[in-house]
């Protein structure tokens, strides 16, 4: 057979537009897409066993590769399963191209069992969506989807089965030039420069592409020259860190700590960051973290060219100032029982050059920023949208995007279980991912939140029912068994020495590993 | 503290309306709900590690208990994770009450990271939804949600954090009488009776509550007296089967087989079933399975009182006819290598009295209907909406609803991985679930579908990329390791004898077990 059907046109058009990886979890409606893959060998299809793995992988792939991957999802329920990590991608302004198979156009009227309102679920997370109407158009639809995604959004192309299988001679569509990312308006630069040089207390709050080394350097020059306090958003899309890069504090997750960081500011200059707000509402605490009376100056939004704006500001305000780069510095390798503190020190002591750190460690990662600030240069990726179950999938995407770099996935236990099947894809693709699975047998973050929201005082009787919902200890999860069952070599450690040994072993053997780090819960 | 806040009012009102089980996966916004649980000990909270487990459990709970359970989900992403199994619940017309925590009402304006359009995702699957506005109203909102659900739909109540934590003296809300389920109109009975007694070829196509023993008996009396052909919808919500119950064929999944079942019919009488359509579209095959020229008579819809309508028809058409009940009959216990055929025979030979069979076996379950038709009386539940990842969660709900009955969960491997963390809940709650995990190391159903949709002919080159997306063999999943890691005792079998031994062992030890049945894929 030749490849002159819609599916072939779609895949070849994706490739022509620079999308050559597809994280896939197909079903019947996508069989012609699957069948067309061998005809376009430039497209790499990576099988995931759950759609949330595909979408989380696509998010992290974009963050590291700088261009979108595609996902292949099966009708409304498949799209639905991918939504939580698309939420994270949306909050990261990641570029993702979803291809969602649908019933043949003429079949929709029968309301067959898998029929649903795909537009509704697609619209929840997507900044762009289109229902492809014919095999003749689907290549151009794909090019439009990629262009839309490249502007920093999630583009969802719904692909009816007959659009896949119908013949077409439309061929491969030309790439479409994406809308450029916004740049700072000169007035905004002027206004920010005035605030920063006013001598009044000023916080320079940055995010977006300003979290990479160049943006951080420019921001630090401004801070050094003006006395402004430099802060980065709390869950950056991609942050460069380590020796030779400017070290920057991130906005704290806990409201009181964040308020302390911002207190006294009379100007808040936003460059690639949104105005700071509390992650959750807490009784008697503010949601808007901007101090009363503080003036907010937005230079450029989160999808804009933030680093360029900072460089412009730095040239104005700090032409002679050099950035203060973090010196190389590592914690001593600790000994003794594994705790959050010793585990953190081990990570800091051994993190390799060029690592990509996927951080979904939650409470077990307390102290990581300080412990790794002087480690060899590395990237840090966070779940920007707060939807858990992102880490193991994101590791897939980062490793596929950067096959020559080690990926360290620092993963909490409760969150891991949402998308645990990602481990199988780690193994199938032989990805160089070392997962540190912090097993504290609890939703420790929720124990903290129970206190934070003042709910603990409402617990009555013996509190057994409430406690049970925050406890993962009965039965205790055995992540060595789980990982082994999915083809990932795994080891359990409960001392700092064993943890260090396991990390060294993993580093010496490329491919996936899981280290189950048994740590006491930070919040008992 | 006393319990006079919104969360307490909500939970006590759910209990007063007959909802006393909550499948929960909470987060920060739900902490006051969690804290209030010990104050209403009649509410049983069952922790799941993923929202799709909670919703699948709630679906099956309703099917077996005949009343809704609640779920507790965390904001938009938590709702999103639960959608796929809510899709199945919607297609089953199950009653489910979702409680979805949200940011405090005054926090929404900050567009914090977890903020999203909950109404959009809730609306995708829910027949009823409400955003609760105050602690004073939330009890009444809960009562309204339960009433809406009881009419055969999914009711979603969005619960802002401040509605949970605000004080109220509104107390426990009175139950609301649900809208009665529809009954057959007398004209529809008359029309159907005329068709059935016309002497012209007639198919009596039933579903809904007609799949229980009484409805099946009435339907069979009609069929026996009139010569009509009796067929049940292909994926019943809950079907009673086995010795002493009328055996009935289900509509085939494969289009050609279904067309054959319906061919020649001049009248199609629908009682609790929707008019038959193809599950998917296939090139050159019809989507509407009703034969050309056949007249369709709808007696009552799927949520209606179908069994009662059949009894009315039977009294008209077959007053003296007795139903033909299936005799007790079991396959011989086979010996030798485990195959789909021998595994099916073992299940038929050993299925215990009163079992609840959760069937997500897909291709590995071929032949099960025949092999179990004469087994001791049991219930069969299917994923009505075709969204996979339903079986292991549904087993939770069935076991919680019917603690004195053995649950056999017949589960395909690929589908299992979508919601594999359900096994942990099997263990935590010590549920009497025996999971038969058919490991054929493939998405065998998709190998079949690749052929069915004619896509196989489009595979080019060596077909390696296409084949890889349907293959689960590299690495092979080890479900014994995975289950053990989640606290479920597990054993792998590859002979019929070992399979039978394992089933007997599981039956002798109440509580969860997993038997990994190694079977060759039905479609190589």
Task: Describe this structure as you would to a colleague.
The structure is a homodimer of 524-residue chains. In chain A, 65% of the residues are buried. Chain A is α/β, with parallel strands linked by helices and 524 residues long. Helices cover 37% and strands 17% of the residues of chain A. In chain A, strands 9-14-13-15-16-18-17 form a seven-stranded mixed beta sheet, with helices on both faces. A six-stranded parallel beta sheet of chain A has the order 2-1-3-4-6-5, with helices on both faces. The N and C termini of chain A lie far apart (63 Å). The first copy, chain A, has helices at residues 6-16, 31-36, 51-65, 75-91, 118-125, 135-150, 161-165, 186-196, 213-226, 255-262, 306-317, 340-350, 368-372, 391-401, 413-416, 422-428, 444-452, 464-468, 479-485, 496-508, and strands at 21-24, 44-47, 69-74, 96-102, 128-131, 154-160, 202-206, 229-232, 239-241, 249-250, 267-271, 295-300, 356-360, 378-382, 407-412, 433-439, 490-493, 513-518. Chain A is built from 20 helices and 18 strands. Chains A and B meet through helix 2, helix 4, helix 5, helix 7 and helix 16 of A and helix 2, helix 4, helix 5, helix 7 and helix 16 of B.
């Amino acid at each position: 057979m030749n490849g002159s059907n819609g599916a072939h046109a779609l895949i070849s058009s994706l490739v022509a537009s620079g999308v050559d990886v597809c994280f896939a979890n197909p079903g019947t409606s996508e069989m012609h897409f699957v069948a067309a893959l061998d005809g376009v060998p430039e497209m790499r299809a990576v099988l995931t066993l759950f759609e949330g793995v595909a979408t989380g992988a696509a998010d992290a792939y974009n963050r590291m590769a700088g261009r979108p991957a595609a996902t292949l999802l099966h009708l409304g329920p498949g799209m639905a399963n991918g939504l939580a990590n698309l939420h994270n991608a949306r909050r990261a302004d990641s570029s993702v191209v979803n291809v969602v198979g649908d019933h043949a156009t003429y079949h929709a009227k029968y309301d067959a069992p898998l029929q649903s309102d795909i537009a509704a679920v697609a619209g929840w997370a997507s900044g762009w969506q289109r229902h492809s109407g014919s095999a003749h158009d689907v290549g151009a639809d794909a090019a439009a989807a990629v262009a839309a995604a490249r502007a920093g959004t999630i583009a969802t192309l719904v692909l009816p089965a007959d659009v896949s299988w119908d013949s077409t001679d439309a061929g491969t569509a030309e790439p479409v030039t994406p809308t450029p990312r916004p740049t700072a308006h000169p007035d905004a630069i002027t206004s920010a420069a005035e605030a920063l040089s006013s001598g009044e207390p000023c916080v320079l709050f940055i995010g977006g592409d300003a979290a990479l080394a160049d943006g951080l350097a420019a921001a630090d020059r401004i801070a050094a020259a003006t006395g402004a306090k430099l802060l980065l958003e709390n869950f950056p899309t991609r942050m460069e860190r380590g020796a030779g890069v400017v070290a920057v504090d991130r906005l704290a997750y806990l409201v009181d700590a964040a308020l302390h960081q911002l207190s006294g500011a009379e100007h808040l200059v936003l460059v690639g960051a949104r105005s700071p707000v509390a992650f959750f509402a807490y009784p008697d605490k503010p949601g808007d973290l901007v101090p009363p009376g503080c003036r907010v100056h937005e230079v450029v939004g989160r999808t804009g060219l933030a680093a360029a704006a900072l460089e412009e500001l730095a040239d104005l305000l700090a032409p002679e100032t050099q950035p203060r780069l973090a010196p190389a510095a590592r914690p001593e390798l600790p000994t003794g029982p594994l705790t959050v503190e010793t585990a953190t020190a081990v990570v800091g002591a051994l993190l390799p050059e060029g690592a990509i750190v996927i951080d979904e460690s939650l409470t077990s990662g307390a102290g990581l920023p300080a412990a790794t600030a002087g480690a060899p240069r590395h990237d840090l990726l966070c779940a920007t949208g707060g939807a858990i179950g992102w880490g193991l999938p994101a590791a897939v995407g980062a490793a596929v995007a950067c096959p020559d770099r080690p990926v360290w996935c620092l993963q909490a236990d409760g969150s891991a279980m949402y998308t645990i099947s990602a481990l199988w894809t780690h193994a199938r693709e032989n990805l160089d991912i070392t997962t540190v699975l912090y097993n504290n047998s609890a939703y420790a973050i929720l124990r903290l939140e129970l206190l934070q929201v003042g709910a603990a005082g409402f617990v009555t009787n013996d509190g057994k029912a409430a406690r049970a919902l925050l406890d993962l200890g009965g039965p205790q999860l055995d992540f060595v068994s789980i990982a082994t069952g999915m083809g990932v070599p795994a080891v359990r450690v409960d001392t700092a020495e064993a943890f260090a040994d396991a990390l060294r072993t993993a580093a010496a053997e490329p491919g996936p590993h899981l280290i189950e780090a048994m740590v006491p819960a930070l919040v008992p």
